[in-house]
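Researcher: Here's a chain I'd like modeled. Treat it as a single chain, no partners, no ligands.
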Amino acid sequence: MHKSELISAVIEKTDQTRKAVEAMVNAYGHVTTEASARGEVISLVGIGSFEVAHRAARQGRNPKTGETLTIAASKQVKSKPGKPLKFAVSHVKG
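Model: Modeled as a single isolated chain. Structure tokens:
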């Protein structure tokens, strides 16, 4: 689902205007990005949580040359689904 599809789906579930829903989705994106940059955990009950995880430096290999190299330490966002989301996904037929 792309951003425009999300906005359309929210419009169908609510009586909000496209402009209002788009503003809310954009604000959500900005707020979660800023909170993640500060290292905060974002927890949405029923949906899941997002947090920044630290990855230590490690050894890797260039697949083209086979040369060993060091991959620098980094941060990444990890998500953990909530129980209702896990249940819904695990009970999808198809």
